[in-house]
Amino acid sequence: MAAASSARSVASQSLAAFAVLLINITSGMGLGWPSPAWIKLTEPAASDNHTGGPGFILDVDEASWVVALYDTGIPLGSVLAGLLLSSAGRRRTLMLAPLLVMSSCALAATASSSTPLKVARVLHGMSFGMEMSLSSLYIGEMTSSDMRGKLCTFTSSLVFVGVLIEYIIGPYVSYLAQALLPVPFALLSLVLCLVWVPESPYFLAARGRHEEMHRALARLRGLRAGDRHPDVDGEAEEILRFTEQDRRRKRIQWRHLLSSAGSRRGCLIVLFLCGTAPLTGTGCLLAYAEYMFRTTGSALPSEIAAIIMSSVQVAAGVASSQVIDRAGRRPLLLVSSLCNAGAMVVAGIFFFLRDALGNNEAASHITWLPLAALMVFMVSNNLGTTTVPWVMIGELLPLQVKAFIPSLSVLGFSIVAFSANKLLPVLVERVGLFLPFWTFGAWSIVIFVFTFFMVPETRGKTLLEVQALLEGDKAKLRHQEATALDPEDNQERC
């Protein structure tokens, strides 16, 4: 295409992706909401509407339910998205996510007790579950090959941006203002869906709506109404060929599919690394950041410490997209899990001195230690254990289970996250923060051992080579490497 046409193509695709990325931001705001909201919900001084509270007080147990119920909505949203994607389409399913966010905000803003607040958290979690199932799928289907990677890397990074927005604004506004904070982002996403975002060309092609598919593709590639271009016509033909081949592909029975050692190993790796990810402690740190930092006695205000921690997380999330194809998946996982474990153990030492040994004098000299350790954790975690497992889904799983295993991983992720977020305040009240921190550190060691023995390196390998690695067939791998096609011609190159 000409330069002007290419510029219009970039702008058109970016605008369509922006509607999805805005929902990623609101998902992060749902994750980060409890940190500044915890004080407003649990402390009498903040419960007065004149000082910014909701007008009611929750005890620690009830407040932890409000925090944790966000995670129960994630699998509900994922299942709902799975049911709607093939029937209602990508665009209509996408429009439901901001509606859920706005409904959640309305309930939270008008809540007079914990019950509507709990429902609001579930609805916001459902939006996150839909986003997890939809964002990469829609962006992958509507973008050109040169834009796909750039836009997909923003999906996880903007979740952390949403968390940071809550940390920066939430502590300094009233409960009502904080409850309505995601509304502008959700509303803008909905407006973009209504006036600009086209349906996925792949969905339209699969439903036999070929003329609509071509119009949507032309719009995404920056062409004016009625314009034609050879590149767009060729891309449309490729989409039609792909959907026809997909329609003819025979469904393989589960018992035959999972009889393969490589398939079983790939599914196990994805389910373990993705499903147990909250046990590294990320979700708990995001939800209870201010609450934890207030207990350290540091001279640095808890809200400022939370902002610093989240800023580091955002920077690390952006950096991970730049290094994952250079350093490789397996090395990042190994280094990340080791650094995570060290950081959590070090942070736990402070709370062990103070809570278990009662040595407040020694602890008072190292109040900087928890924040420093958590800075290291946020960098290492976002460079590896938070990002790499979700990238490897497309590399380790056989085609026939790519619609099922990720959903099962989201379900496991939600159950573990809910349990961790519910139990953490209870453990803090009864034992001390050192126990959760050391538990998170111990699980990072488990991830290191699992990665060392089970996870292969997939960078730069074809899907056939990855399957050979999973099967443990080194002879087959050497043969494939010796007879590999030129990378430009290899359509299965990861």
TrEMBL record:
Q: What is its main location?
A: membrane
Molecular-function GO terms, alphabetical: transmembrane transporter activity
| Alphabetical list of PROSITE patterns matching this protein | MFS (PS50850), SUGAR_TRANSPORT_1 (PS00216), SUGAR_TRANSPORT_2 (PS00217)
Q: GO terms for CC?
A: plasma membrane
Where does this one sit in the cell? Cell membrane
Which keywords does the record carry? Answer: Cell membrane, Membrane, Sugar transport, Transmembrane, Transmembrane helix, Transport
* TM regions (residue ranges): 63-86, 151-169, 175-197, 267-288, 300-320, 332-353, 365-391, 403-421, 433-455
Query: Which Pfam family, any one, appears in the UniProt record?
Result: Sugar_tr
Q: How does it sit in the membrane?
A: Multi-pass membrane protein
Major facilitator superfamily (MFS) profile domain location, by residue? 16-459
Q: What is this protein called?
A: Facilitated trehalose transporter Tret1-like
Lineage of the organism = Eukaryota, Metazoa, Ecdysozoa, Arthropoda, Hexapoda
